[in-house]
Design a protein that fits this description.
flat; Nucleotidyltransferase, domain 5; 339 residues; 11 helices; alpha/beta; Actin, Chain A, domain 4; six-stranded mixed β-sheet
């Protein structure tokens, strides 16, 4: 039995949860899904095992995503899920761990309190919150304490956080409820409307990963997918092209682009000069969408860089921030809220 558990950082994502443990790095990466018996409210599975049940469960079992648009939508299920993952990475211990959790930059005080309370009830000794763009910047290897401007666009599953950072804080920021999940939803709606076929979330995600693009591809790509014919309800296989996917997700990418431009327009000139020379950094799983960096670079006329490990940036940055909690709490750096 361990007397002192290691400090933990959690990227509490709408689609995926990543857990960073002190001195070990990222030790867990699982879908933020919980399977529940809707009649008895018994929790049957969490994470990867529960994700396999999405779209495949009998009437008595529902697979729930307790986080929506980057915030808690089901408090009880989120608390159980956090406890499950904290226990899984900590093992048996006498003294509870300190936990750092990243949150969208524009969530309300009520939403922050929900995250703090859920983590505390899940077994954390102390809970600290850090804004996702700050954590993403730290995880991307950027020294956010310096007096120069850095722009971060963190595209997760439920939200896109856009921020200009300087001297350890966000100068200008916004949170858009458009990200990876919206890409998938747009693909599902497009295929249903234009091809008369219903496909599931996992199929839409596979299409996005294989042939999705935010910028017109030079050569047409195609992928075969299976779904249900809307006319007769029978299984059907269709071929979807990269051009179709481009048109399907264009409204989402345009909204992200508009958000980037809006933040740039209200950024102080001195910081804008820094961004012009340093570029815009893309993090989060959504930044892996083909052509997104090209689209933003073409529209803003600024260099755009995708982080080396964009999916893990927020979790890594949150973990690194744990070692500087005292400095950060003193007001000499990132503003962190704790319970």
């Amino acid at each position: 039995m361990n007397f002192f558990s290691k400090d933990i950082a959690i990227d509490l994502g709408t689609a995926t949860i990543l857990v960073y443990v002190e001195d070990k790095g990222i030790v867990l990466r699982e879908p933020s899904v919980v399977a529940v018996n809707k009649y008895t409210e018994e929790i049957l599975a969490v994470g990867e095992e529960a994700s396999k049940m999405l779209g495949r469960t009998p009437g008595s079992i529902v697979a729930i995503r307790p986080l929506k648009d980057g915030v808690i939508s089901n408090y009880t299920i989120t608390k159980y899920m956090l406890k499950y993952f904290i226990d899984k990475v900590s093992g048996k211990y006498i003294f509870s761990p300190r936990v750092m959790i990243c949150v969208p930059s524009k969530i309300t005080e009520v939403e922050k309190k929900a995250v703090l309370d859920a983590a505390k009830e899940a077994g954390a000794k102390k809970v600290h919150l850090i804004e996702e763009p700050l954590a993403a910047a730290i995880g991307a290897g950027i020294d956010i304490t310096k007096a120069y401007g850095t722009m971060i666009v963190d595209i997760g599953g439920g939200t896109t956080d856009i921020a200009v950072i300087s001297l350890g804080g966000s100068v200008k920021s916004t949170t858009l409820k458009v990200a990876g999940d919206k890409f998938d939803e747009s693909i599902m709606k497009y295929i249903k409307k234009n091809r008369g076929v219903i496909i599931g979330e996992k199929t839409a995600e596979e299409i996005k990963i294989k042939i999705g693009s935010a910028y017109p591809r030079r050569s047409l790509q195609k992928v075969k997918v299976k779904g249900r014919d809307l006319a007769n309800g029978l299984p059907v296989q269709i071929v979807v092209s990269s051009e179709e996917v481009y048109y399907a997700i264009s409204p989402c990418t345009e909204e992200i682009l508009e958000g980037v431009c809006n933040i740039l327009e209200c950024t102080p000139p001195e910081l804008l000069t820094d961004i012009s020379s340093r570029g815009i950094y893309l993090t989060g799983g959504g930044s892996l969408l083909s052509g997104l960096d090209t689209l933003i670079q073409e529209k803003t006329k600024l260099p755009v860089l995708v982080a080396e490990d964009p999916v893990s940036c927020v979790a890594i940055g949150s973990g690194k921030a744990l070692s500087h909690v005292q400095m950060l709490e003193s007001g000499n750096g990132v503003k962190i809220k704790k319970l």
